[in-house]
Amino acid sequence: MMFPHNFLWGGATAANQIEGAYRADGKGLSVQDVMPHGLRTPPTAEPTNDNLKREAIDFYHRYREDIDLFAEMGFKTFRLSFAWSRILPQGDETEPNAAGLEFYDRVIDYLLEKGIEPLVTLSHYETPLHLARHYGGWTNRELITFFERYARTVIEHFKGRVRYWLTFNEINSVLHFPFFSGIESTPEELGPQKLYQAIHHELVASARATKLAHEIDPANKVGCMILAVPRYPLTPDPQDALAAMAASHEDYTFGDVHVRGSYPGYFLRKLKELGVELEMTDADKEDLKHTVDYVSFSYYMSVCESANQEAGGEGNIIGGVPNPTLKASEWGWQIDPVGLRIILNDYWDRWQKPLFIVENGLGAKDKLINETVEDDYRIDYLNDHLVQVGEAIEDGVKVLGYTSWGPIDLVSASTAQMSKRYGFIYVDRNDDGSGSLKRYRKKSFDWYKQVIASNGASL
Ligand code: BG6
To answer: Which structural domain range is residue 20 located in?
Structure first.
């Protein structure tokens, strides 16, 4: 396998899933503080004690040890997110919380000291709770201003230290999980008018952050981040192919706007058919023209689509129906390494922008025996996917890098469990919150180290 010489190998995390210290040094609450069971139960009225994210893996205090381990694996980059509510505890303040910025100063400076390029997500499912409960989250246009203020604060503050930015994590996931965007209703309760207006607000906010990042420092590279799911027709029936196209369009909309700077025709038609009239100012249209430098995405699974409502059985959390040719993880996510090559080609053909795989991995239960985990299943999963990245590169796709999800075990987003582990590094913490938080190298730790050292030749 031939990977480019400057390929950015590394790992990816999110603040709420690793940091803990959920009220330390002036941090405000985020939507995650009322999601003790992830997406399994509705948000609670108040924060509860059973939320593992309160302490998470205590990266807040152990970041040096963790970054040392990443450096030992040879990471070229580390994807982290800034918790918006650490910088602006309520989200609508005009002055930042200095202690929040100081924490990220320490982390970023230590990464740079270790020669690791930071890749920062501005908003990773961490909308300040006040913005959710007081303003209705992204349904409210005012969030554009608040987000812009936050983005300006951190992009100016980290000028020259952080060059790679992502705006919203899996921006298309609002179609399925609105509470991550601070919207406390299901998509059905919300209705299309409010849902698409909220999406519009996020897209404008993303474009504004891109614009100001380029103004603050032309060396900044800003990407969008999409939850990527190849959607195959369940059968050769053209109606199934059409169903797959329609479902793919839902996701493409977000990339199309970020890359082309305006809404695609198929989307406008859909709005018309749904009777949705977007409130879109002339200034919004101008803002959207500030397009991204690269497209990043997460990839875990593919799904099938069918025009027949009865077909196929229940899909997974992002819709569709199961693919009868694929096996699934313990959490029902279907494993499809070839789908990664397909989506890389698809996105490249469509957008002709450099691509960055910023999440991929296998959530699995691990057994710590003799201070390590024999996680051959994880090695197989990652190896198979990386081989397909290599194939896509051979196909001519420009790929900037690959950051596996959760290089160190962390709290799951969908289930809020510790036992859904992705790491090369095991963290001693259990679903009931017990454990020493001690870190251990798994077998995959040495495997990934070798992959990076050989720049993919060992795959
Ligand atoms: C992505 C999210 O959807 O998938 C991450 O960006 C998340 O935050 C990851 O952790 C894996 O999902 P889960 O539910 O297994 O944690």
So the answer is: 8-453
Distance 412 CA to ligand 1 centre (A): 6
359 in ligand 1 pocket by Cβ < 6 Å? yes
Atom of ligand 1 nearest to the CA of 169: 6
From ligand 1's centre to the CA of 102, what distance in Å?
Answer: 27
Averaged pLDDT, 53-66: 98
Q: What is the pLDDT of residue 122?
A: 98
- The structure's pTM equals 0.97
> Please, are residues 223 and 166 in contact by the beta-carbon 8 Å criterion?
yes
* Annotated catalytic residue 359: yes
Confidence tier at 316 by pLDDT (50, 70, 90): low
DSSP string, 346-400: HHHHHH-S-EEEEE----B----BTTB---HHHHHHHHHHHHHHHHHHHTT--EE
Asked, for residue 459, whether it belongs to a domain, the answer is no
Q: What's the CA gap between 2 and 455, in Å, rounded? A: 8
Q: Is residue 254 part of a domain?
A: yes
Q: Is residue 419 part of a domain?
A: yes
Q: How many domains does the chain have?
A: 1
Catalytic residue from among 19, 93, 359, 371: 359
- The CATH number given to whatever domain includes residue 154 is 3.20.20.80
Residue 405 near ligand 1, beta carbon < 6 Å: yes
Determine the pLDDT at residue 128: 98
Residue 219 CB burial class (10 angstroms; 0-12, 13-18, ≥19): exposed
CB of 126 sitting under 6 A from ligand 1: no
Which residue among 225, 356, 405 is best mutated to probe the pocket of ligand 1, counting the most ligand atoms within 8 A of its Cβ? 405
